[in-house]
Amino acid sequence: MLTEERQARIADYINQNGLCKVSELCKLTDTSESTIRRDLIQMEKQGMLKRVHGGARSVKSFSRDVSQHVRFSLNHEDKLKVARFAAEHFVHSGDDIFIDAGTTTYEMVPFLAGIADLTIVTNGVETVLCSLNHGINTILVGGKIKDDTHASVGHSAQDQIKSMNFTASFIGTNGIDKDGKLSTPDPEEAAVKRTEIAQAEHAYVLADKSKIGEQNFAVFGNIKDTVLITNKLNQREKAAMPADIKIEEV
Fold it and tell me: Could you report the per-residue pLDDT of 95-140, keeping only the tens digit for each?
């Protein structure tokens, strides 16, 4: 397959799916990982796509969320480390906590099973099922369920969250830009996240390194008003955010 033909097929596939892994593109084009990675570097320089850790995303799907089953598999090891650190250091016996409907925050649940008298409130369908399976007292916030992220959103969800106070809220984000703005593709999810932060004594944003320097359509807060829990950052990644933030590097 010629380079031009291969890259055209890659571009079409990414634009249709929004986000995909290198391994998928290898199967699609029947080529090696090294060839695909070279293609992605070249295509990113041409503005055809945006490279992410382990794959690439469409530049045409800027305001569209990525389907849940794909999001759970991306950067899984990084997410797991961040989630475990958050659970072990910032959740205590007797706490009432909110866990956002993100894939990194979801990974906290198994590490919370041994904490006594803990109550989890969540707007994530997968999170509530996982929490119940681990025997944790759990409250699911009602509302409209999004098909792609399985998150409960809307005025009903916000009103329920406003009626509660949390020891801590653990929030996911799709991007943290150079000014510290936290963003997500969907304004309805952004509104819920904003309420989660407002109702918490302490707010923690859980984000793997791929979210650093990213921007999405709907802004819901600023990292300066929370604590960021992320993977160990290099100087370039640190420079992509404000200097005066509270950060825990795993």
Answer: 999 999 988 999 999 999 999 999 999 999 999 999 999 999 999 9
User: 81 vs 73, 86, 125, 200, 250, CA distance in Å?
Assistant: 14, 9, 22, 23, 7
pTM for this one? 0.75
Question: At residue 242, what is the residue type?
Answer: P
Whether the Cβ atoms of residue 98 and residue 196 lie closer than 8 Å to each other:
yes
Q: Is 32 helix (H, G, I), strand (E, B) or coil?
A: coil
Fold (CATH) for 3-61: Arc Repressor Mutant, subunit A (1.10.10)
Summarize pLDDT for 25-43 with one digit per residue, the tens: 999 999 999 999 999 999 8
The amino acid present at 81, given as its one-letter code, is: K
The verdict on domain 71-249 having CATH code 3.60.15.10 is no
